[in-house]
Amino acid sequence: MSRRLISIFCLLVAGTMMFSLISCSQSMEQPDVTTQGSTTTAGVTTTKAVTTTKAQTTTSKAETTAPVEVNPFAEFYEISWITGFNDTYEEGAYDELMLEEKYNIDIKTWNISYYDAEGLTMMLAAGEIPDFSYIPYAPMDAVQLYDEGFTRSVPLEFYKQYFPYYYEQMEKNKPSSYIYNNIKGTDEYYGISFIMTTWKSYYNGPIFRLDWLENVGYGIPDSELTPIHFTDEKLGPYDGNLFMTNFMFEFDEMNDIFRAFTEDDPDGNGEDDTYAAVGFEHTFRAAWVDLYWGMFGVNSSENNFLYLESSTGDNVPWFAYSGYRDYMEWANEMHNKGYMRTMDLSGGEYWYDVLLATWLTGKVGFFTADRQYIGRPHFPEYSDRQPPQSLWLNGLEDATMVCMPVLKGPGEVWGNRRYGLDAFADGKWRTYNVAKTVSDGKLQRVLTMWNDRYSDPKDPWNVKAWIGIEGVHFKWQGEPWVSGMMTTEAEKIPPQYRRGGFWGGSFQAETLYYGHEAAYQYYTFGEEHQWVAKYCIEPNKYINKLKMGVDLFEQYEKDYAEYSGSIHAAVTDFGRRSWNGEIANLNAEWEQYINQLYAAGLETIIDKYYNNDAFPVYERPDLS
Q1: Mean pLDDT for the stretch of residues 209-228
Q2: 3 close to 106: Cβ distance less than 8 angstroms
Q3: Which of 70, 145, 187, 222 could form a disulfide with 156 if both were Cys (CB 3.0 to 4.6 A apart)?
Q4: Is the full-model pTM beyond 0.90?
Q5: Res. 64: pLDDT tops 80
Q6: Mind listing the pLDDT tens digit for each residue in 92-117?
Q7: 116, exposed or middle or buried, with CB in 10 Å at 0-12, 13-18, 19+?
Q8: Domains identified in the chain and CATH numbers
Q9: Using DSSP, how many helices (H) and how many strands (E) does the chain show?
């Protein structure tokens, strides 16, 4: 696609963008470089002449030829790319130049964001796709892109030869790693599956206002609190304001805390203007309510979990599980009493923006926080809106807060959802696509580039190219790799060291906590105390091709499609009526609701598939 056409697309859709991940400025000058026997200047490659030498000996006049150094990057490639917030990117960032010099390539980043659904749709409608792309908001997934002739397959043999790091991870995580994105009956793949460290993590974490807890008589003993320290210029002034703990309140205690945050003037201003938390209607399902649902052994954001319903012995989805009923009953009570309040979306704003703005008022005492942004000093256009730092940076400088593992429900029930169940994944959000026009040589070059990065992420060249220059882009809080990496704010980086950061792939098998100092402390603490292993909800069975088997899964999809309309109409109606207070006795009507679901086709699905012995019970992998 020409840059002119891309520019036209971007002008049409620029208004749809929410934010940009990477700040850009002017490019740096590219130095001349000699790479393994070839000199690259302005996109032209000239190979050094091969010379031979005569061996001089006293016993023989035989001539020998010196070994010829083979340059694996002799052929030059121009490579087009979309993998991030590319709409404002300007060519020539310092990391781009480093990669181009080393691998004898020219990366052409198309100016379309991977969040731009309209622009990506227009791009595909014009019959265009870049050589390498991660485009989750495109209208087609990897299988559809392949079937429509946009992309090529990736041979397993290429992983073995050119990306052995990736192949090693496939071997460690088989059989699932060989199934995701596999073209059935072949050793070829629709695209390159992500490797996800998030299978050992979860998305949102609970944060309480610690000062409010102390004001209403629920202070946590100092011995249970571990401070998260800040030493960077931006958040350093708030060092001593944030803690983490393994301590959790009992369910009844938390309910009373929600009451006290609403009724007992926890901020001490003499006004009745606070409440405990933001709530969501039962029809809203996302990771942002997983902590609430998790108190009852069920999660909101994952459709494919099946739960063992003790009253019937059936494997059932969330909407037929008694844990969902118990959650609704609790949430209704919190909402009706005003302890949890919904957001005002009457102005048409996106719910997430309203959520962050509501938290920012300082009138809410509990947050289902995005864990990756806790205490993050950089990426201000996004992280500055996130708790806890959003409150400090907007006037509440003395607010203290505490991070807990999860919320505890009644009895010994608690939990959150692991972000993924396997190390490998597929689908639009977890696949890199390779255009049909990409030659074997070009694909091999990129796989080699990625292999170099992931095989040794701490190699000095890799650190400089993929992470940044110490003293320019970051500095270590303490000892390298065992302390936080404090990232320099984008506007403070000299223009010649502007980074792009779009070309690295997503294949890290083990988490490196180098994002910022709070992340290192927070995630390391949770890992040391086994938060994921102890507190995450696991399914009794998990619906996908890998667990069910391809034939059973494909037949299930066909049958479920027949009944899904009537089933989900009943689910939506029951959830809406429950939230609106139209159900006088939730427990009494629950049985009628379940009977309705079973009559609508759920019983057939349960008997034929969910309870099928050929569909095995899920076994959690080793999370240690």
Answers
A1: 98
A2: no
A3: 187
A4: no
A5: no
A6: 999 999 999 999 999 999 999 999 99
A7: buried
A8: 3-42+68-197+430-468+484-497 (3.40.190), 205-417 (3.40.190), 542-610 (no CATH)
A9: 22, 24
